[in-house]
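dumping this here so i dont lose it
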């Protein structure tokens, strides 16, 4: 308050706040302090948080962080508490920021709202541009915009390294996970495949959104590369099962099977670093094999 009247922000302050979006707002001329107890309720946001926040800022991750088939958090998550999706658990941690999916369990979202727990909500990115925007959004929210820019630069460099060199052929491919689930065109995975020199063939099987492709359809008109998932550590991969299926054995060198972890299917942000490298290797290995230059 100034002279008993409410202080009115200047036009410059308003413009800066709007430009920052999810960044700390200007309150009385001072930026909101960086959150000190942050909880993530989503495996993709777990990875973002681990890359962007100090470890002592992280109060808890999602329970997926302890499942290597569902999360790319890896050893960095070791020793950090997890929650199992209940508002009671989250509130007990006394967070000053919760990272969550916009379509997270409505009851939990409503409970956190009623209790005044600050949240930062994210949608599923459908493109690289949207994913990089979310990196920046999360970085501002945790108070580390400079780390966000560093992650963005690393992602851009990884995708540049994954891109086919001039003259290298592009190959048709399908990300085909356990149970026949495939990633459709118009998704983040589709965008990353294209940048790595793989043309997503899901559309030619009638897939307009991510879903199921019958095995018979792949056999009748196979892509050059099948990126097949690995559902459980130590178990035969989905690629192994397909590779030894009699119908695919007959295809010989017409198709190349490459293991592709299912945990890479849905997350952007720092997960793209691993995804880009695996997509590029899959294309190069397939090109060598399909032209007789590899096994």
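and the seq i came up w/
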């Amino acid at each position: 308050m100034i002279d008993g009247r409410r202080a009115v922000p200047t036009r410059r302050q308003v413009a800066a706040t709007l430009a920052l979006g999810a960044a700390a707002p200007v309150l009385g001329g001072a930026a909101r302090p960086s959150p000190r107890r942050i909880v993530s309720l989503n495996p993709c946001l777990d990875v973002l948080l681990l890359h962007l926040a100090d470890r002592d800022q992280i109060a808890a991750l999602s329970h997926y962080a302890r499942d290597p088939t569902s999360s790319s958090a890896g050893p960095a998550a070791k020793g950090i508490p997890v929650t199992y999706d209940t508002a009671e658990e989250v509130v007990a941690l006394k967070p000053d920021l919760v990272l969550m999916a916009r379509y997270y369990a409505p009851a939990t979202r409503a409970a956190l709202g009623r209790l005044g727990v600050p949240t930062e909500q994210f949608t599923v990115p459908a493109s690289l541009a949207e994913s990089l925007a979310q990196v920046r959004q999360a970085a501002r929210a945790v108070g580390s915009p400079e780390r966000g820019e560093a992650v963005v630069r690393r992602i851009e460099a990884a995708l540049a390294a994954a891109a086919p060199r001039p003259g290298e052929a592009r190959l048709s491919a399908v990300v085909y996970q356990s149970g026949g689930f495939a990633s459709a065109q118009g998704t983040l995975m589709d965008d990353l495949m294209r940048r790595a020199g793989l043309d997503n063939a899901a559309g030619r099987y009638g897939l307009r959104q991510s879903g199921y492709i019958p095995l018979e359809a792949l056999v009748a008109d196979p892509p050059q590369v099948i990126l097949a998932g690995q559902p459980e550590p130590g178990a035969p991969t989905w690629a192994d099962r397909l590779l030894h299926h009699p119908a695919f054995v007959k295809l010989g060198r017409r198709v190349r099977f490459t293991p592709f972890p299912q945990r890479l299917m849905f997350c952007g942000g720092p997960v793209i670093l691993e995804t880009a490298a695996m997509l590029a290797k899959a294309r190069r290995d397939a090109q060598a094999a399909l032209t007789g230059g590899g096994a």
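The chain has two domains: 33-157, 167-290.
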